[in-house]
Specification:
This protein has 14 helices and twelve strands. By secondary structure, it is of the alpha/beta class. Strands 1-2-3-4-6-5 form a six-stranded mixed β-sheet, with helices on one face. Strand 11 and strand 12 form a beta hairpin. The longest helix is centred in the middle third of the chain and has 17 residues.
Length: 308
């Protein structure tokens, strides 16, 4: 990490208040390790807690246990990290609503500044999907996931957190700058195997295989692929990401960046969601309501510009 930070500062000028985040699993933590991270220049940690219940962690085949998750948070705080984010997962089979609320309350008790929460998803062709198909694991309950998402929104709002992106909650002033840049369509560099980069028009992604990536660098061969985004791609990405945010979709931005015709189309096609109460209009911004957030992906897909 120190080597990487030295190279970055050699080639770029970092803002004095730059947010420098490291993602870490609870198993990675020790007091000395946390101290080294601080020394390397890391000033924000994102910790993959997932759950404070051993039953959930075992069900998801996580390597750490609940006690290790608690220790990780405490070690991070003791090392002087005030900017912390933790990940939690809801909708796990067997996770009762009161257990989910207990997970939320544990995070609130620690005073964590940023919380990212995701519904459990079962990817096809994984060991978990095979076990569910063979009735060796209980299937995911979509209604239960929706209910726990609503409980989450209510609890975090009551605790004073901003629900600034559909899966992310932050105390005022503690939003993730890194993730926000993705949702705002800002350019970014990605270094290393499988890393993505974006300049506003072109998206590139590096070779994922470590050995092939190194070999490409050694031989001066291209180590990435790239895609020039069409206008429809850029508009659809904006629709998808903006609707996930607290500020919502800016119709003025659509008109200026794309065309008045696209603004009119989105106004017309969003009318049904305004009528259903899944969306509200604040000035020139279309924003999802709590119930609308349950259908965010479907709404965004419906508003996409079809490619010809």
């Amino acid at each position: 990490l120190q080597f990487l930070m030295d190279r970055i500062t050699r080639h770029f000028t970092l803002d004095p208040g730059a947010e420098i985040t490291l993602e870490a699993n609870p198993d990675d933590f020790s007091a000395s390790q946390a101290g080294w991270w601080r020394k390397a220049g890391i000033n924000r940690l994102s910790i993959g807690i997932q759950s404070f219940r051993d039953e959930d962690l075992q069900w998801m085949h996580r390597t750490h246990r609940a006690e290790k998750a608690r220790q990780a948070i405490e070690l991070a705080i003791q090392a002087g990290f005030s900017n912390l984010s933790v990940d939690l997962i809801y909708g796990i089979p067997g996770l009762k609503d009161e257990d989910w609320m207990d997970n939320i309350n544990r995070v609130l008790d620690y005073g964590i500044s940023h919380v990212a929460c995701y519904a459990l998803t079962v990817e096809p062709r994984t060991a978990l999907s095979s076990m569910i198909a063979a009735h060796k694991r209980e299937p995911v309950d979509p209604e239960g996931q929706a209910r726990q998402f609503l409980l989450l929104m209510e609890a975090m709002e009551a605790a004073g957190y901003e629900h600034y992106e559909i899966s992310n909650f932050a105390k005022p002033g503690w939003r993730s700058r890194h993730n926000s840049s993705y949702w705002q369509g800002k350019p970014y560099y990605g270094f290393g195997p499988s890393a993505h980069s974006y300049n506003g028009q072109i998206r590139g992604w590096n070779i994922a295989n470590n050995a092939l990536y190194i070999k490409s660098l050694q031989h001066g061969a291209p180590d990435f692929e790239m895609e020039i985004l069409k206008e429809s791609d850029r508009l659809n990405e904006y629709v998808m990401t903006s609707l996930r945010t607290m500020e919502g979709l800016d119709l003025d931005y659509v008109e200026d960046r794309f065309s008045p015709a696209q603004r009119l189309r989105l106004e017309n096609e969003s009318a049904k969601y305004l009528d259903r109460g899944w969306m509200v209009r604040e000035g020139q911004n279309l924003q999802l309501t709590k119930n609308g957030k349950l259908f965010a992906d479907a709404i965004a897909s419906d508003l996409f510009l079809l490619q010809t």
